[in-house]
Structures are given as C-alpha cells and as structure tokens.
C-alpha cells in the first residue's frame, strides 16, 4: 500500500480532501477552462493538427496527471514549444492534413509517454540535468521566435512553410503577393488587442474603479473576447467567402478512442524526436512545478513527475491528442486562481469535455488569424535575450552554449538546435577540465592553511614543491598533469619533495592512476619523492590496493600542514 | 630562424650530427629494413592494397617524419591497426582491387595528413586525451582479434569477407569446403615457425653458444627466412598452379608520384573515417614515442608530433602509399638496434627504395599465406585482456568502457567500436559528476583541519552544518546539490548556519550560480545563513560581481577554520 501510494500520489491527498479545497479547486477550474479553450485550439493549429486535437489533448492527460503527478498546481496539456517540436517531427514523416499526420502525432505521444514512464521507473530523472539552464533559455527564446514567425502566414493570409527561420522568411517573402487584406486586418487588430490585454488592460480597468479581483478575471477572459468578437464579425459579414480562413466544422464529441501507429519504420523515424521532445517537455514541466511548489513549501519528486507526465502522454496517444507537458502559463493561472489539489485539473478536464461536446459549433466562423494572434502574443513573452548578457558577463563558455543554441535552433531547426546546445555544453565542460588549474601553494603564516603563492603572501621552501591540483583526475587531463609536474621539477633543480595536495581531487580514474604511477617512477629516477596530502575518503578507498600506493616514494598525509611540517628542512636549533 | 627550427626539429639535431651517430644509425637502418620488407607487404595486403603500396608507404613518410618529427627513434610506416581502419573505410567506397580503391586510400592518407597538420598548427594535440587508456587498450585488443581473423582466409586459402567478427567467422565457415590443402600447410607451418621465432628461437640459439647480439639479429631475420623458404618452395614445386595464392608481379619502381582523389562525394564519405584514423594513429604513435623518449630523458612535443605525422601522411598520399603512423614494433626494433637520430629512418627509406627497385621480382612466388602468418603472429601480441581485470578491480566505470569498446569493435566494426568507447567514457564521467559526493565535515580536534564526520572523530555543533562539496558545480549537478542541502536543513531544525566548504569546487558555471542564488534565497526564508569557505582564486574571481555574493546572507571565509571559529556558538566563559 505504501508503495502504491508512492506511485499514485492521489491516494495521499485524496484522503484529506475537504469541502473548502473543493470550492477553491472549482473556481480555479472555471478560470483555467475559459483560458484553455482558445489556447488549445491555437496550439493544435501550431502543431499542424485539427483544432479538436488541442482540446482532446487537454482532457485525458489532465486526469492522468492528477492521479500520478506530484505537483499540486501543474496544468498539463498542449504547450507552445512541444507543439512546435511535434510539427517539426511529424512533418518529416507525413503531410499536414492527412490521416497519417494525426496518427504520427499519436505515435509521437505514445513513444514520448513510454519513454518518460521508463525513465521514471528507472529513476533516471537526473538525465534532464544535461540541459543546462542557459541552453534551455536560449532554446525557449529561439523557439518563441520560430513559433511567432510560423504564425505570420495566418496573420497575412498566405500559404507559407518551412521549419527554420530562413526557410520561413523566404517562403513568406515569396508569397507576399497573395496577402488577404481582410485576414490581415483581423490578424493585426487581434494581435494589437491581445497585447493591450496583456500589458494595458488591467491598469486601465483598475483606473476605472474595478476591484483588482474582477480586473484580473476580465483580463484572463481577454482572449475569449477576441475569439468571440472576430467569430461574430466573420459570421455576420461573410468574410470567409472572401478568403479569410476559418476553423470550420469541428466534430462534436468527447475524446475518441484512438490507436497510435506502431509500424516499425514510423516508430524508428519518430523515436529520436520523441526522446528529445520528452526531455524538453520534462525540463519545462519540472521547472514550472518546482517554482510553484517552492512558493507553498511543497516537494516535487522528479522521478514520480516523469511517471505522471508519461501517463499523461500515453493518455493523449489513446484519446486523439498529441504530446503534452506541464505548461507555464496555464499552471500559473491555475495556481493564482487558488487551485489546491490536482482535483482542480480534473474539473478543468470536465469543463473542456463539455466544451468539446457543446461549444464546437460556435467556433465554426473563428478566423485562424485570431488563433495565430493568440499564439504570437503568448510566445513573444518567452523571447528573452537577457541570458546572453548575463552569461557573457559571468562565463564565456556558457555564453557560447546559449549563442550556439539560439543560432542553430533558428537556422537548423529545433532538434539540431537543442542537441547542439547539449553537445556544446558537454564539450566545453570537458575542455575546461582538460586543462586543470594547478596552483603552487605555501603556508599562510601563523595558520595551518595553504594557498596559492601568486595570490597570497605565503611561506615556501625551494626543496619542497607543493601543488594543489584543482580538478578531478581522469583520462582527459591525466597526461597534462604529468607533463606539467615533470617540467616544473626539471626547471627547479633544488626540488627534493613534491607534495600533491588532493583536496580538490574528487576522483582518480584508471588512466589517471596509470599516469600517477608513471609520475612516481619518473620522479624516483630523478631523486625526488612524491607525497600526497588531503586525499579524500572515497578517493583513498580506491587507491589503497594499487601499485601507486605500495610503490609511492613518499608518504600520504592527512593534511597539507602535516606534510609540510614533516618534509620541510627544519632550521638547526642552537643549543 | 628560431621559429623555423621549432617547426623543423631536423635543424636542431642535424647541426651536431657526428660520425659515431652516423654509424649507429646505419646499423639500425639495416636491421629495420630487413624487418620491414615482409611487414610492409603484409600490411598492404591487410589494407586490401597491392603489396608495393606497403613499401611505398614506408619511404616518403619516413623521410618527412625525419624532417618534422620530434622523436629520435619513432619509425613511421604502415601499421596493423591503421591498415585495418584503412580497409574498413576504403572498403565502404570502392571495391578491393580496383583503381578506385587505391585512389581512395590515397585520399584517406591526404585527409588524415591534412587533419593532423591542422590540429598541430592549432595546437590541439590534447584532443587525443579523449581516448582514455582503457579504451585504447580495449580497442587494440579487439583490433588484434579482428586482424588475425581477417587473415585466416589466406591461411585456409578460401575467399571470405566481412568487417566484423560475426561476419568474418560466418563467411569463413560457409567457405570451409574450398580449403586449399597446400595453402593450409604453408600457412600453418609459417605461423608455427614465426611463433617459435618469437618465443623460442633466441633461448635456443643462446643455448647453442651464440652471442646474444648475433642471436638477436638472427631472431629479427626470422620473418625474412620464412619468406625466403616458402617463396623458394612454391617456385620449385609449382604449387601456385595448384591454387596457392602468390604475390605475383610487383612493379619495379621507386615510389610513383600519385594524386589523391578530391571528388567532393569521396571526400565527404572518407572525412569522418579519416579523422578517426588520424586520432587513433596519433595516439598509438605518441604513446610509442613517449615511452622511448622517456628511456633516454628526451622530450616529445605532442603538437609538433601532429605536424610530423601529418607530413608523413601527406607524403604517403602523393607517393602511392596509404595512411601511416608510428608503429610500436618497428620503433622498438629501431631503438634497440641503436638508432640515435631520425637519420636512421632516412637510411631505412633508402634501403626500402633499393628493395622496391631491385628486389620485387624475387617475391613473385611469395605465398599470401606467409604474409598472413606474419600478420597473425605480429598482431596476436597486441591481444591483451589483462586491462579487463585491472579495471574491474580499480573502477567499474573504466571496466564498462573497456568492455563496451571490445564488444562493439568486434561486433559492429572498428569505427563504431572506438567511437562508442569515447562516448561511453564521457557519459560515465558525466554520470559520476552528476551525483556529487558531499561530506559533512567537522574539526579534527587540536588542528585547523576539517574532515568527514563519518570517517574521522571530529567536533561539530548542531547549529552549524559544514558541508564539503566534492565536485565542481555545473549544469549536470547544479540542482542535485540544492535539493540535497535543502533536505538536510529541513531535517535538522536546529541548524542556523550552513557553511559550504568549496575546497574541492574547481568551477561554478552559470547554471550552478543560479542554483546557489536560489539556495541562498530559500535558506534566508528559513532563517538560515549561507556561508562559503576556501573558495579558490579562479572561482572567486568569477563570483565576485554576481548577485550571489552581493546578496549572500552569510560571509565568505578564507579557511573553513575561520568560518567555524566565527559562526559556532562560543561556550560562555565564567569570570
């Protein structure tokens, strides 16, 4: 039972669910539902899927996450970046608008869900750490630009395509002649209105004397107003006969039971994108969940989150959806609206199910331009170049990683972009550790503390070379250290003792062990003793049984101070 | 001039060349030439090239290395592993025996030479460090097995093919019916004889009363004897008419002037193999050079070695050869024979040139089985599984890397094998650093030294949590540390001060900086102060201007002792 409760957090919070929690969750659900209807339609369009897929993807996944997830406030469903990744991955195996495209999207959700659940069971949540924060920030910014650009065609009313910025811009430019003036007017007006809703509406309403609470709710309903007004406008004026693209007929139905395609060649070509999408989705989701949990001093279990998100994606795969994850905007709204438990998500799911059955005829005349405006306004808030400045000031290596991620995402597509970001980060890290910082240290007078001779006023002796090695020793830097020490000893001919201060050596791998054995032999031939000091427990445990220790010409000291006191020549004391 | 001398070491040692050095170099050259003739023919066969390519590849490259290389004893030419890599790479773009095959081999040498020279000029020799010693050992062992297996067809006299162990064995088994009995007899006899030459001949000759020096020279000449005897045998008995494959007509010529093919599609498909081959060849060469240089207290400059090897490969590309590198066997023979300067190599080249012009008709009847025996006996000495045992005892991560390299090289081919070895090593290293060891430390009584409370008898106080972080902080482990500290603080409610002892933190990247800022904020909310101690110079330089330092709730101390003395509650002193 304890075990089951671990894997299904609902059994914990469900037992103490109160009437008060219920009413708070209910209010949050209503607000989130109103916000989600246009957003779900818009993201489905971004993913290249029919609008109902966005609503379906918000129903079963929310329910499943409520059962398996650990975050109290996270709202799972279609999000911008994952929708873009879906369009990019599925676009490579099927044509938009075909049945194969929708099936491939289900397969992608299925593979992603399976992968996340497996990671969760194997407790491999730490893999997400390979995406460094600067890389994520760069990727999100570049994705925001890509997404906004991809929606310009709906605002202009032209047909354009492409998965990278140059492709999209080129395609847009070559189709500029086809601009539909009515679409453009609706699109620009909707975009301008939504920007105002986001920035200027709340202060405006407050200045008109509304209560903050009411102003808040009205602001949240802004996108719904845009949807309503433009739909009615197109319906009354018959602009859809003048080239304004509309959503059209959407089936009135609860989420259907669907089967992802499991054809081996389809699975093979979607597997890598599914893994990438899963990791990116997970990273986005967990960072939102942790931010919100921290505000209420709750804890998130990353491995259980993997299972929760995985279950949500499996749910999407079998109910006509597409890959989902925990979204920032919807989760924050849920949290701010007072959601207390995952039950709020369940109520949202019910609200959306009602919308799917009852409201879809009402959006027949909804213009695609309005949805595009919704997306553009939402994603432009993701675009944030400040990470470039911050990393430039702090660390050039991080800056290079961000820059590479942004440029490659924009020019080579989302998958190449994020994969390159990870590879560049790892390579730069290895490069840094391949040239270890080695400081010659001496005793800080009057203490037992030893610091760099170039930075501090310290005591040394020409016959003793004390070196603090500032890196774990492993294959990438094993030889470098050996070369460095040998050339130092060759230059300083008075040296009789070399003390390697291992306080910063956290591991010694086999290649480094061999290099140290070699160093010991060479120093012995030169009449120099090799000592080690401050070797840490875990490192000493491994070294104990080796040839290095049994043949070490010098000793191993607990502290650098002991080593120094033992080997330095003592001043002769006059009796 | 100084600069030129740096890039052409010949200008240094050439000025002080003496008559005595000349005679020593001459003797070494004669011995090496005798050994190289059968070896060059055999390795060319292994690479799938006509026998003369092996001799040509030993002439210009040796001369060029003599000009640009830094090792006094290294002998450059065809070697087993590089020949195998050549066969694998070129076999993917052309059919053996065609003109395209030979041209592709030239192209491979050209690309490899160019790549090495560029690395050398950019001083990127450290890249070779990414191949850890266990991975190299595993790769060499697996290559030895692959090479020996690939030669079995010549011993059996059947036609078989394949680039992996299962392919080769399967192909051999399915052709077993075609065994040529005469070939088999010659092959087995030659192999047995050569094994005896290697293991038993020298003791035998010594027991017969020969001087060690003479016994040594005769042992070196063993392969030549095998070549001579089997050639004469086939010539006299006419066995070549009974299915015994022979070398046949070899052009009598100095190395011809050739042009590598530079067709873009050829270059594109050979580029990656060329890079891999260059790095493996360089690693083999530099480790031989360093071993020999250490014996005479000479120094090897890795970056200059890249230029020397690169020049040798460019030379091979334009004189009918194929990729070359510094070989272990030939270099050791050269060294033991008393070679003093690279001039010994030049004399060897002259000897081989004479052989190419004058001796090739004599090997018309040389059986391929004899060459195969030469290769098998040479490479089986490379097979050494002891690395598996050594790494198993010392470090499981290294063991996994060796095992993966051996298994993947045998089953998936040389390129996949070595690439996987590198990737597995890097991943395991990152995995280890992703879960940093964090020790709670206390004061070793009577000293200013702080060690792990679980391993040493130390003094602590419930209100102070001193943690020594045993890893550089970067994106892979940034969050892990934060989680760990927060859960420790949540468990120990008396804690008022957290001191992070940064003696083992060699770098803090941007992701980790953000995690620390976050930690500082969260601890502040819990009423706990965060202090840092023993922050190293390079780390402090970067942290100085950050939000973390300006908002740190605690202080930064030079030593852990200072920190402890400052923050621990003092016992009240009774007056």
Automatic annotation (TrEMBL), chains A, B:
GO cellular component, as recorded: membrane
Bilayer topology annotation: Multi-pass membrane protein
PROSITE patterns: STAS (PS50801)
STAS domain: residues covered: 454-567
Primary site of residence: membrane
Alphabetical keyword list: Membrane, Transmembrane, Transmembrane helix
Subcellular location: Membrane
Xref: Gene3D superfamilies: STAS domain
InterPro entries assigned: SLC26A/SulP_dom, SLC26A/SulP_fam, STAS_dom, STAS_dom_sf
Keyword Transmembrane helix part of the UniProt annotation: yes
GO biological process: transmembrane transport
Transmembrane segments: 21-41, 100-122, 134-156, 176-197, 217-236, 270-294, 306-324, 344-364, 371-388, 400-428
PANTHER family: SULFATE TRANSPORTER
Annotated protein name in UniProt: Sulfate permease
Underlying gene: sulP
């Amino acid at each position: 039972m304890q075990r089951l409760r671990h894997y299904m957090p609902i059994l914990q919070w469900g037992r103490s669910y109160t009437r008060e929690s219920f009413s708070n969750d209910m209010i949050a659900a209503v607000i989130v539902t109103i916000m989600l209807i246009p957003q779900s339609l818009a993201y489905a369009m971004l993913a290249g899927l029919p609008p109902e897929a966005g609503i379906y993807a918000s129903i079963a996944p929310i329910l499943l996450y409520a059962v398996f997830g650990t975050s109290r406030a996270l709202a799972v469903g279609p999000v911008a970046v994952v929708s873009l990744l879906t369009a990019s991955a599925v676009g490579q195996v099927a044509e938009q608008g075909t049945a194969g495209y929708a099936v491939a999207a289900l397969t992608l959700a299925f593979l992603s869900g399976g992968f996340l659940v497996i990671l969760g069971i194997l407790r491999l949540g730490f893999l997400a750490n390979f995406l460094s924060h600067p890389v994520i920030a760069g990727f999100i910014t570049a994705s925001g630009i890509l997404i906004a650009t991809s929606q310009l065609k709906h605002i202009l009313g032209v047909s354009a395509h492409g998965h990278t910025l140059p492709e999209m811009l080129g395609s847009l430019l070559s189709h500029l002649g086809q601009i539909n003036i009515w679409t453009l007017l609706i699109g620009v007006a909707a975009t301008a209105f939504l920007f105002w809703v986001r920035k200027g509406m709340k202060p405006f309403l407050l200045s008109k004397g509304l209560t903050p609470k009411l102003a808040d709710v009205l602001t949240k309903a802004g996108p719904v107003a845009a949807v309503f007004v433009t739909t009615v406008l197109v319906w009354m004026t018959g602009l859809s006969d003048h080239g304004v693209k509309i959503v059209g007929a959407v089936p009135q139905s609860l989420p259907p039971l669907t089967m992802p395609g499991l054809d081996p060649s389809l699975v093979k070509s979607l597997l890598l994108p599914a893994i990438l999408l899963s990791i990116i989705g997970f990273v986005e989701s967990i960072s939102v969940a942790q931010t919100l949990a921290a505000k209420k001093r709750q804890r998130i279990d990353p491995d259980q989150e993997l299972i929760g998100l995985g279950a949500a994606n499996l749910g999407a795969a079998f109910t006509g959806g597409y890959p989902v994850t925990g979204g920032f905007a919807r989760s924050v709204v849920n949290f701010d609206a007072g959601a207390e438990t995952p039950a709020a998500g369940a109520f949202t799911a019910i609200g959306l199910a009602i919308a799917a059955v009852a409201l879809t005829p009402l959006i027949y005349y909804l213009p695609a331009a309005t949805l595009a405006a919704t997306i553009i306004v939402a994603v432009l808030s993701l675009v944030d170049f400040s990470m470039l400045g911050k990393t430039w000031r702090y660390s050039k290596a991080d800056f290079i990683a961000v820059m590479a991620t942004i440029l490659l995402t924009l020019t080579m597509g989302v998958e190449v972009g994020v994969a390159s970001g990870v590879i560049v980060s790892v390579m730069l890290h290895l490069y840094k550790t391949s040239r270890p910082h080695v400081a010659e240290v001496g005793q800080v007078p009057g203490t037992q503390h030893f610091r760099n001779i170039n930075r501090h006023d310290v005591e040394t002796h020409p016959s003793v070379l004390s070196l603090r090695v500032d890196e774990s020793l492993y294959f990438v830097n094993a030889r470098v250290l050996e070369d460095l020490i040998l050339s130092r000893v060759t230059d300083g001919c008075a040296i009789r003792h070399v003390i390697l201060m291992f306080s910063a050596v956290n591991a010694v791998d086999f290649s480094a062990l061999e290099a140290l054995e070699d160093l010991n032999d060479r120093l012995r031939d030169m009449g120099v003793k090799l000592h080690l000091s401050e070797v840490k427990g875990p490192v000493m445990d491994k070294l104990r049984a080796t040839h290095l220790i049994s043949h070490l010409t010098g000793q191993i000291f607990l502290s650098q101070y002991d080593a120094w006191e033992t080997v330095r020549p003592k001043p002769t004391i006059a009796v």
